[in-house]
Amino acid sequence: MTRYTSATGADRREMLDAIGAASVEELFADVPESMRLRRPLDLPDGMAEQDVHDHLAALAARNRHCDAEVSFLGAGMYDHYVPAVVDAIAQRAEFLTPYTPYQPEVSQGTLQAMFEFQTAISELTALPVANASLYDGPSSVAAAAYMAKLETGRTRLVASRGVHPHSRATLATYGRGYGTTLEEVALDATGATPIEELASAVDGETAAVFLQQPNFLGTVEDLGPLVEASRAHGALVVCAVDPLTLGVLEPPGEFGVDIALGEGQPLGNRLDFGGPSFGFFAAQERFIRRMPGRIAGETVDVDGRRGFVLTLQTREQHIRREKATHNICTSQALNALAGVVYLSWLGRRGVVEIGELMLRRTAYTRERLGLEAINPGPVVREFAVRVPDLDALLERARAAGINPGYPLRRDYPEYGDGLLVAITERRTRADIDRLAEVAAAAREQVTA
Amino acid sequence: MADEGRPGATGGETYPDDIRYHPEHDWARVDGEEATFGVTWFAQDNLGEIVFFDPPGAGATVSSGQPYAEIESVKAVADVFAPLSGEIVAVNEALSDAPERINEDPYGEGWLVRVRLADPAELGSLLDVGAYRALLDSERGEA
Amino acid sequence: MSPAEPRTLTIFERSRDGRRAFAPPATDVPERAVEELLPAAAIRRTPPRLPEVSEPEIVRHYTNLSKRNFDLDTGFYPLGSCTMKHNPKVNERVAGLPGHARLHPLQDAPYARGALELMWRLERALAEIAGLPHVSLQPSAGSQGELAGLLLTRAYHEDRGETRTKVLTPDTAHGTNPASVTMAGYEVVKVGTARDGGVDLDDLRTKTAEDVACLMLTNPNTLGLFDTGIEEIARTVHEAGATLYYDGANLNAVMGISRPGDMGFDIVHFNLHKSFTQPHGGGGPGAGPIAVSDRIEPYLPVPRVVHVPSTNGAEPVYELRHEAPKSIGRLRGFQGNFGVFVRAYAYICSVGGDGLRDVSETAVLNANYLRARLAEAGVGELLPAAFDRACMHEFVLSGAPAKRELGIKTLDIAKRLLDHRVHPPTVYFPLLVDEALMIEPTETETRETLDAFAEAIRSILDEAREDPDIARNAPYDTPVRRLDETSASRRPVVREQHHPG
C-alpha cells in the first residue's frame, strides 16, 4: 500500500467479495498471458516523503538559478519578479486541483478567471477576441498557421527571421504534418525586418506572414509598413508580442494584424526551466469561430444570475473531432490564472511603468557596455551586440557570478560573435555596471 | 469530456407538401429556375437549439447530395446537404443574428440559401412528403 | 462552496482610478523620455485598460472566486478518462524550490545538471513503465504527444520511401485522436467496436491496407475494457507495415502489470497530469511525454537529453543535444513543461516501482467495487453497465433505462449529484453508449467514499421515482444553477465590455 492509497487488507477482501472475485489478479483476466509483466518494474522502491524531498532538493541544488547569479539571459523567458499574491492565489486547491470546467455550475471560479484573462489579453493586444490559453508561445504560432491554412486554403508561410527561432522551428515541424512550407526573410544590417524583402516574399499563395514585436534581437520593428506589405495578397498577418512591453509599445491590434499571440511567461509565471507557462492568442472578431483553444463566455442561469460557461465548443476536438480548429484539450489554465492575477497586480499604470523602466534600463545597458550593436536602432527589453572574444567574456562573467546573456551562434550563424542581453525590472543599475566592468576587463584581456 | 445540450425544438412537427425532400433531412422548394433550400423539422429537432449557420458565399456551386454548409447547436455540428445542384444566388443573412429561426420556422424564415438550378431534371430524384414520412418512420423504428 | 450570491463582479468592474497593488522599483538609470527612445509610431497612445485595484482587493476577489469552484481536495471527482487522483503536496514543495522554479531554460548544461539529470531519470522511469527504450519529454500535453507520434510515423514511413495517407482510430476514441490525425495531414478512418467492447477485428482487417500509416489505440479503451484482441490487432497492423500508437490516457490501469511496448506498440504518450499526479489546474498545465521503439527513435524531437555515464570517477555528464539529422524538429519552446516533470518524478520516487503496480491494482479494484455497488437492485436495472465484463480502472453505464423508466436523463443525474457535493462522472462519452456515464474512481479514494457515491446515486434514482422534476431542475445548492449555453453560443460575449476607463 502506498501512502496515497487507502485500501486496507480488510477493505480488499470485502471489496473482492462484493465484486465476486477471488483475487485482484482475477480482475486482470482480460490481459493476455503473453502481455503480462512477469517481474517487478525495474525502478527503486518507494521512498519516505522526507527522502523524496531531500533527493529532489539535492538535484535542485545542482542548478544555478536566477537568485544564484546575476542573469542577463532572456531569449523568450525572463527573470521577472513574481509577486507573492500570484503564488497565494494559484496555489489555492480550488484553482489547483479541479479539472477543465465542464460542469459550469461548480466551476465559476475558473470560468470567470478565464473570462477576465481573455479581457486582459484583449486589452493588451487591442484585439477583440482572445482565447483562454494555449501551451506556449511557439506552439501558438503553429496554431495560427493551421488556422490561416484552413481559412485561406493556402500552404505557404513567410516568417521574418526576427521571429523567435523556436517558433520558426515549431512552424517547420507542424508544417510537415499539415502541409505548409516556410520561407524566412533575413534581417537587415540594423537587425530589423526589411520591408521590401518581406513584400517580395509574400505572394498569392501565402497563407500567413509572421512578425514579432520586439523581434528576437529586441529591435522595435516598424510595424505599420510591415503589416501593410504582409497583407498585400490576402495573407493573414500574425504578430508575436511580448506582453510586458505592451504598456509602452503600440499594440498589434492598432496596426490591423489579424492575430496577435505570444509567450505568457513574463506575466507572473515561473521560469521553471522552460515550462509550464502559457501561450496567449487574440484575433479580429471575424475569427471567433475559427480560433483554437477554449473560450469562456458570459451568460445567465435559470434564475437570471450572471455566470460563465465554456462557449463556441463546436470548434473543439471533443465535438468537431477530425474537423476541429486544433487538437488541443488540456491547455495551461493555471498559468493563465497566474497571468491575470499578475496583470491585476500590475494594473493600468504599472504595465506602463514597468515598460518604461525596461526601456530606460535597456538603453542604459547598451550604452554602458559600449560594444558594437547588431541592432543599433530602437530596442526594448533586449539587444544584441558583437563581442570580439565571446568565450572570454562568458568565462570571465561566469567566474564573477554573472550570466551575461544568450550567445546567438546556435540560432543565428550570421551573428557568430553575437550576444543577446536581456533586461528586466530585476536588473539594477549596480548589476548592469558589474556586467559592464566584466565586459571591459574581458576586452582588455583580448587586446593585451 | 463534454456533456450534452438540451433539445430546443419549438413548434409542432410538420412536413409541408409543397416541397421536395432529400433523405439527409433537407428540403427544396422550386420556383422556376431557382430553388430555396432548408432543413426539415426532424433535422432541427435532432440537433436541438441551433446557434450558428455557416453559409457558403453567393456564387459558390453546390452539388446534389453533397454537403455545402454546416449548422451548429451548442454541442453538435451537422453538415447540410444540397438536395439539387446549382449556384448559390442568395443566403439568408438574417440567420447570422438569429439562427433560432431555423428552429422556429424551418420551412419559412429559417430557409438557408437560394440556388439557381443547374439541372431541373434532378427534382425527380427527391422524395415527396409521403416518401419522406415513410423514411422517417423507418429511421425511428431502428432507433 | 459559497451559496448563491448577487451579481458577481469581474476584477475589471472592481477597478477604481488611482488604486494600485504594484509599486515600481526605483528608477536608478537616467529618466529619458520615451519619445527619445522610441519612434513616435511605435509608442502606445492609450494604455491598456487593466484593472486598478489594491492588493487586498485582488486577494479577496480571487479567493472568493476560488470558492465558486468544486475541487479535488474538497471532494470525490470520479470523472471518467481524467484520472482525478490525489495530488501529493510534497510535489508542490519540491517543484517550488528555487533551483527548479527559478532556473532559466537556456542556462548552460554545466549549470543545469540537476535539471537535466532529473529529466534523464524521469525518461528512464517512463521507458521502463512503457516497455519502450526511448523517451522524449517535450510534448506539452496528451494531444501534442499524439501529434508528435503521428509526425514520427510520417517521418518513419517517408524515410523508407513510403507514402501512406490514412490513420485508423476506433469509434470509441477520444476526440483528440481524429483531430491530431487531421493536423498531421492524414485522413481519419474509423474502426468499429465489436460486441465485447473491443476493436472489431473483421473491420480492422478490412481497413488495414498498404495506405494505412498507423492505428491509434487506447488500451484499456474508453469503455474501461482491456482489449483482449490486442495480440491480433498488433499482428494485423504490423503486417501491413503501419505503426501502432498507444494513447496513454488510461495507463493508470496497467502500470507494472502490462506494458504497451510488450503489447507491440511503437509509440506511447503519457499524460503526466493523469497517472503521474500533476494537478489539473482547471484545465492545465499537463505534459505528454512519448516513449518509442528503436525503429522510431531517430525521428524523436530535439532537443534531447544526453547522458554520458561517469568514467574513472569523473562526474557523469548531462547535456542537451540540439541536432539530430532525422529528427522531426521541435514542437514548442525550450525543453517542455519541466515543472510538471518535477512533480511526476517526485511521485514516481514516492510510490516506487512496487507502488506503481499497487496503484493500478487498487484503481482497478476500486472501479470494480463501485461497479458492483451500482449493479445492486434498485440501481443496476436503471443504470446498467454498457458492457457486462470486469472493467479496468473505469467503467461505463448507460442511463437509457433511467431515461425511459423515470424520465430523467444522464445529464439530470449528473446535475443532481452536484447537490450531493460530488463531481459528476463524465457524461455522454463514449459516443456509442446511449446516455453514457463514465466513472473513474481512482486508487486514492477510500471505500467509504465509494459507498457514499453509490448511495448518492441510489437516492437520486429513488427521488426521481417520486418526482423526476427534482433532478430535471437540479442543481439547487450551487453558486449558480443551469446556465444558458445557447445564448452564450449564439451571441458570444467573451470579454468584459463595460468596465471603467
The level-1 CATH class of the domain at 353-486 in chain C: Alpha Beta
Can you identify the CATH class of the domain at 39-128 in chain B? Mainly Beta
CATH evolutionary superfamily of the domain at 353-486 in chain C: Aspartate Aminotransferase, domain 1
CATH architecture of the domain at 353-486 in chain C: Alpha-Beta Complex
Order of helices and strands of chain B: EEEHEEEEEHEH
General description of the model:
Chain A is built from 14 helices and 15 strands. Chain A has helices spanning 9-19, 24-27, 49-60, 84-90, 93-96, 108-125, 137-152, 165-178, 195-201, 223-230, 317-320, 333-369, 390-399, 429-447; strands at residues 70-71, 129-130, 156-160, 181-185, 206-213, 236-241, 259-263, 279-283, 296-300, 306-310, 372-373, 382-386, 402-403, 406-407, 418-422. A seven-stranded mixed beta sheet of chain A has the order 2-8-7-6-5-3-4, sandwiched between helices. Chain A has two domains: 70-82 and 348-447, Aspartate Aminotransferase, domain 1, CATH 3.90.1150.10; 85-341, 3-Layer(aba) Sandwich (Aspartate Aminotransferase, domain 2). In chain A, strand 9 and strand 10 (306-310) form a beta hairpin. Chain B has a domain at 39-128: Beta Barrel (OB fold (Dihydrolipoamide Acetyltransferase, E2P)). Chain B is built from three helices and nine strands; from the N terminus they run βββαβββββαβα. The model of chain B is unreliable at 1-10 (pLDDT under 50). Among the domains of chain C are: 1-64, no CATH class; 353-486, Aspartate Aminotransferase, domain 1 (Alpha-Beta Complex), CATH 3.90.1150. Chain C has helices at residues 34-37, 55-66, 89-95, 98-101, 113-130, 142-159, 176-183, 201-207, 230-239, 260-263, 338-374, 400-406, 410-419, 447-466, 468-472, 485-490, and strands spanning 134-136, 166-170, 187-191, 212-217, 243-247, 267-269, 290-292, 304-308, 317-321, 395-398, 426-427, 436-439. In chain C, the strands form three sheets. Chain C has a seven-stranded mixed beta sheet, sandwiched between helices. In chain C, strands 10-12-11 form a three-stranded antiparallel beta sheet. The interface between A and C is large, with 208 and 209 residues.
